[in-house]
From TrEMBL:
PANTHER family: CYTOCHROME B SUBUNIT OF NITRIC OXIDE REDUCTASE, CYTOCHROME C OXIDASE SUBUNIT 1. It comes from Hyphobacterium vulgare. This is Nitric-oxide reductase large subunit. It comes from the Bacteria. Keywords: Membrane, Transmembrane, Transmembrane helix. The lineage of its organism: Bacteria, Pseudomonadati, Pseudomonadota, Alphaproteobacteria, Maricaulales. Residues 34-214 form the Nitric oxide reductase subunit B cytochrome c-like domain. It holds the Pfam family COX1. The keyword Lipid biosynthesis does not apply. The chain crosses the membrane at residues 227-247, 280-303, 330-351, 363-387, 407-429, 441-462, 474-500, 512-535, 541-561, 582-605, 625-648, 660-678, 719-740.
């Protein structure tokens, strides 16, 4: 154990030091923000203020929920950086063809087209940023093309009648940005984001976004570093799986302990604070149901961009809002389930109820409601353009996927996490001080609690005018390290502690297993964050480190079947364990989706060469749905069901209802992923490889009958999934009613939990 603790400490120190150095490199090498974009004759196209204000406008309308920039964001509207690049390139080619030959570019023969593409590529690849003046110097011809493209976007985000059909295809509300000046500033941001994708770095070789997106017109193709490090990541993955399998085959497994004659947790009487945690679980279910409803509306916008079965819903709740709420509620309800589990378990593990613990749990719940309701209202007001741009940053829509909530609500959420950390810590303190076999597990749980509380603070590191590359760097600290990293360590420790308390796993075995799993996971997990940043204005070093360590993230999943089998076998350890059958089955499903969603579908898009073509396409959404709900969502539900066993009367428990919900949720998820999202993603990937990313995200491609058919094929899975969630809600309602009746019939005291 001492060796494992030392290894874990070393991994964390080295990984975060390296991650910090890479962050410094990203800051130094990020695409420059010019003082002006102008011609050599002094004709100014955009100023720095235009670009920065344009980004604020983009954020206010929903930002990365309405299309994307550099591949991160929504999938229905275009990636604006790729779309601008293609439109600007075509405008320049058409203008030159008309000037030289009197026809459009498409009317030229192949030889002349090739010659013109070479000239275009030379001009657009040239880095004309002058560090002394801070200006980007471009030709008058390019200025004319940019102004032509800008007019298209000014009309698109306004209410120009001729683009109404295109707005509907993109699910962008008519008059999304009513203010003409804001629309004009928005085009400055789009130009700069596109400029970074095609302009070579001063040292040459690759663009600021590592030649992303794929665009044959300007010669954007995978770099040599991209291909080489992709090969290296696959070799390392195979080597890592081989090494882990060798280690596992040589490991001596202890025999499972003889389980107690009866359920040890029946002696635990819920305390006041543990009972106060029940309302968190009701909120989890309510937010889960709301997220499902919003997901159905969001998916339907792909075929009716302004309507919901003929109802003009976008006038009230446009796509930008429904997708924001859908993704944000996923984080809210899953995190709430895990936070409530911590509040429930802490008094059990600590052995007593701290003074005023229930009051703290209730205060924290009030803060949670304020953040959820307040942030959602602010996001709606932001998208409706009610706020000025500064006010929007604080109370409206920040525009960055998964951290959309305004800064004020972020600060409140961070304060709430600090309260949660204090509540869990004070309840765990007696167990942390007392020696015993279970102490290492409790320490891991407490350390992960600290990390969960503190790492959300990464979302507070950027301001209104922080460089986009640095926002992406810190944002993925929140999404990858906070959500996918330390919450998973917390959940692993919590499950192990529950199984130890039930007598199904030896404390010594659980200590070693959880600590070893944490070491293995964080070895790849911390630096694996960088696979999100390959094309976000970072250098080739990010591709190298991200490719290698994101491959290591997949290595532990090779043996996930063993974990699933061990969990399943526990349900047969003793007759009384059958009462925990379905909560344990949820953990088995977590292992399955960890392999499929995080492993297979994750590695499908993780190598740089793969992500180069599919970033921002539905294969990313395929991985996201299968991993986010399949792993973290099912884990949250499993933990919630464990807590329900101790919080409500046993006679109200219905294995039939939970089993029905289990199979419907898993079956519905599989249907929506493999009948809709995955095939759409495969078709998009082919289009991206053959034509370019702009085409894979274009209305021309996404409005094809085959795509519409596949979008409709999501409906059966959505229905099955929704029924499963409904059955879960009915089961929870049945428990609540039984608890209410029991409480009225026979009031009980609130003794401290058994040791």
């Amino acid at each position: 154990m001492r060796k494992l603790w030392a290894i874990l400490a070393l991994i964390l120190i080295v990984s975060f030091s390296w991650l910090g150095l890479i962050g410094r490199e990203i800051h130094r090498q990020a695409p420059p923000m010019p003082s002006a974009v102008a011609t050599a004759e002094g004709d100014v196209l955009y100023t720095r203020e235009d670009i920065e204000t344009g980004r604020q406008v983009y954020q206010s309308m929903g930002g990365q929920q309405v299309g994307s920039i550099w591949g991160h964001g929504g999938y229905l509207a275009p990636d604006w950086s790729a779309d601008w690049l293609h439109r600007e390139s075509m405008a320049m080619l058409d203008a030159r063809a008309e000037e030289l030959y009197g026809v459009s570019y498409d009317e030229l023969d192949d030889g002349r087209q090739a010659d013109m593409r070479v000239r275009l590529q030379e001009e657009l690849n040239a880095n004309t940023y002058d560090a002394e003046t801070g200006q980007i110097i471009i030709s008058g011809e390019r200025v004319a093309a940019a102004r032509q493209v800008a007019r298209h976007y000014v009309d698109l985000f306004g209410d120009a009648h001729e683009l109404e059909a295109l707005r509907e295809d993109y699910a962008i509300a008519n008059g999304a940005i009513p203010d003409l000046e804001r629309r004009q500033k928005l085009t400055a941001f789009f130009f700069w984001a596109s400029w970074a994708t095609v302009t070579h770095r001063p040292e040459g070789g690759v663009t600021y976004t590592n030649n992303w997106p794929h665009e044959p017109l300007v010669g954007n193709a995978p770099s040599a570093g991209n291909i080489m490090w992709s090969i290296a990541s696959i070799i390392l993955l195979i080597a890592g799986i081989g090494a882990l399998t060798w280690w596992h085959s040589g490991r001596k497994e202890e025999a499972a302990p003889v389980p107690p004659a009866s359920d040890p947790l029946t002696a635990v009487a819920p305390t006041a604070s543990m009972k106060a945690a029940r309302k968190y679980f009701w909120t989890v279910i309510a937010l889960f149901l709301a997220q499902i409803l919003l997901g159905a509306v969001t998916a339907h916008y792909a075929v009716e961009g302004h309507d919901f079965y003929g109802i003009p819903l976008s006038d009230i709740i446009p796509y930008a809002v429904t997708r924001t709420w859908h993704t944000q509620l996923a984080i809210f309800w899953i995190a709430t389930a895990w936070l409530a589990t911590g509040l429930y378990l802490a008094p059990i593990l600590g052995g007593k109820e701290p003074k005023f613990q229930a009051l703290g749990v209730n205060v924290l719940y009030g803060a949670l409601l304020v953040v959820v309701v307040g942030s959602m209202a602010g996001e709606w007001l932001g998208v409706q353009q009610v706020f000025d741009l500064d006010m929007n940053f604080w109370f409206g829509h920040q525009g960055w996927e998964y951290v959309d909530l305004g800064r004020f609500w972020q600060l409140l959420l961070f304060a709430g996490l600090m309260i949660w950390l204090a509540l869990v810590g004070r309840a765990l303190w007696p167990a942390l001080r007392a020696p015993g076999e279970g102490r290492p597990l409790t320490v891991i749980l407490f350390l992960s609690t600290i990390a969960i509380g503190l790492f959300y603070g990464a979302g507070l590191t950027w301001g209104q005018h922080t460089h986009l590359s640095m926002i992406e760097y810190w944002r993925w600290w929140v999404v990858h390290l906070w959500v996918e990293g330390f919450f998973e360590v917390f959940a692993t420790a919590a499950i192990a502690l529950l199984l130890v308390k039930l007598g199904l796993v030896r404390a010594r075995t659980a200590n070693h297993g959880v600590l070893f799993a944490t070491v293995i996971f964080l070895t790849g997990g911390v630096l694996g964050t960088l696979h999100h940043l390959y094309f976000a204005g970072a250098t080739t070093s990010v591709i190298a480190v991200g490719a290698v360590f994101s491959a290591l993230e997949v290595v532990p999943l090779a043996l996930i079947g063993h974990e699933a089998y061990e969990n399943y076998r526990m349900t047969k350890a003793a007759k009384w364990v059958q009462t925990y059958k379905w909560p344990i089955f949820f953990f088995v499903a977590v292992a399955f989706w960890n392999l499929v969603g995080a492993g297979l579908l994750g590695f499908l898009i993780n190598p740089p060469i793969s992500l180069y073509f599919v970033q921002g396409l539905n294969l990313t959404a395929t991985h996201g749905h299968a991993a986010l709900f399949g792993v973290y969502g099912l884990l949250g539900i499993g933990l919630m069901l464990f807590c329900f066993r101790g919080l409500f009367p046993k006679f109200a428990w219905s294995d039939r209802m939970i089993g029905t919900s289990f199979w419907l949720l898993n079956g519905g998820l599989a249907m929506m992923v493999f009948m809709s999202l995955f095939p759409v993603g495969v078709l998009q990937a082919h289009a991206s490889i053959t034509e370019g990313l702009w085409y894979a995200r274009s209305a021309e491609f996404l409005q094809q009958p085959i795509i519409h058919f596949l979008v409709w094929m999501r409906v059966p899975g959505d229905i099955v999934f929704s029924i499963g969630a409904g059955v879960l809600a009915l089961f929870a309602g049945q428990l609540a009613w039984a608890g209410f009746r029991q409480g009225r019939a026979k009031p009980t005291a609130h003794p401290a939990p058994a040791e």
